[in-house]
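Long-time lurker. I teach an intro course on protein structure, and each term I like to show students one example going from raw sequence to a predicted 3D structure in token notation. This year I'd like something fresh instead of my usual example. Would anyone be willing to generate the tokens for the chain below so I can use it in lecture? Attribution to the forum is fine with me.
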Amino acid sequence: MLAVSIHERRKIVRLALESPLTEGRDGARWYAGHQALARALSRSAGVTVHSYVYLPQEYEEVQAFGRGQHVGGERLMYNEVELPESSDGDFDDQAFARMQSRWPLGHLAWVFGVERDQLLRLRLLPTTRVALDDATSDTLLEGLLRGIAA
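-- Reply from a regular --
Happy to contribute to a lecture. Here you go:
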């Protein structure tokens, strides 16, 4: 199954394959190594496709594809991040949010014109599931995407 979620205001489409391979933490790792869909979409649709992996407590990664080729990306391992300390030994939430805005997912959120938290909540938007082996799926998918292409 292909799960399709659309943030209509910002014209962001989230595509996620749904299978036992893509569930949970192991699923996030699976996505990190399987970018064929992103490559194919970038080639056939003539757009830049961004793929991201978010594993809380471990890492975040963004990859970009254009014309079927890898054109950029970055991975940030959380255990390698050095948190600055303020003069009173405290590091507040606002300072941490500013720091995260420069991380891969923060930068991608900026590119899309949303907040980092909104990007991470795309999976909570209303989702349409499209069977990949159904002949009517192309029509369904085309109808879903028509509104944002304008």
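Some talking points for your students: The chain has a mean pLDDT of 88. The CA atoms of residues 6 and 144 lie 8 Å apart.
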